[in-house]
Amino acid sequence: MLTEKEKIEYELLNLLADVQDPVGSVTLSLLLKEKNLDISGATVGRKLSSFDHQGLTVKQGFRGRVLTGAGFKKLTDFRNRKRQAEVSSKFYESIDVESKDNLVDLLIARRGIERETVRLAAIHATDGDIQRLRALYSAQAKDAADGIITSDNDVLFHQALARASKNKVLAAAYDFIWQNGHYSPVMEYIRSAVGGVLALDHGNILNALITRNPDNADKCMIDHIDGLISDVHKYWSLAQKVIGQPSPDSKGEII
Predict the structure, then answer these.
(1) Cα–Cα nearest to 154, from 111, 118, 199
(2) Could you say which DSSP state residue 62 is in?
(3) CA 20 to 30 Å from 246, out of 70, 96, 130, 163?
(4) CA angle 139–142–143, rounded 5-degree value
(5) Chain segment 36-72, per-residue pLDDT in tens
(6) Can you list the domains of the chain with their CATH numbers?
(7) Model pTM?
(8) Where would I find the H helices in 125-252?
(9) In a 10 Å sphere around its CB, with 0-12 CB exposed, 13-18 middle and 19+ buried, how is residue 254 labelled?
């Protein structure tokens, strides 16, 4: 995501790349106005001076500035970051947790990532990793017994699993999915509404890790995620019965 300052710098570099010929601050200010950016010629001039100082542009007499190789490299960096932000935005739109279809799709994505993660964790987890997972499981089981929503410990347990896999790419993929802060509380609410307990599944996963059994760990994780998917379907059926309507085409929202 670009800051407001970086957005202006990006647009200026973009214009300099598009125009190609030397261009001055007044012309650039007018071109920015066409993009609904009301930046004065003086402000643009200061930005260009800063670009000169950084080696991003070079002044060609009174004609104006052109981009240097470093300037084109900086513009490419901005474009990549902008594209990544747009992809992230589309991703977050796709995981609206109030949509049944999106929630199920998210769980299917999790199943693919976490079954490999837990297999690796069964092989590579250190004694410290196992200790951490034991403590998180105990805290979650206690909360569940006391009727307390355990979504925080749920997130921490799965994060600890991802770290225990010792695979940085899988851990990063997991973190990316769980950046949606509404996901875990919604799943905990759904599971409790249909009579399930997250901590029970986590106990099975933990035992598979303690015994260093990748195949069993894989099976326990698949059972866990498939159980969550089943709970989502049950919840939507139940919700529709409560409000006396036929089950929707999976597009309904959590009530």
Answers:
(1) 199
(2) T
(3) 96
(4) 85
(5) 888 888 888 899 999 999 999 998 888 888 999 999 9
(6) 4-89 (1.10.10.10), 95-242 (1.20.120.530)
(7) 0.59
(8) 127-145, 151-164, 168-177, 183-193, 198-210, 214-242
(9) middle
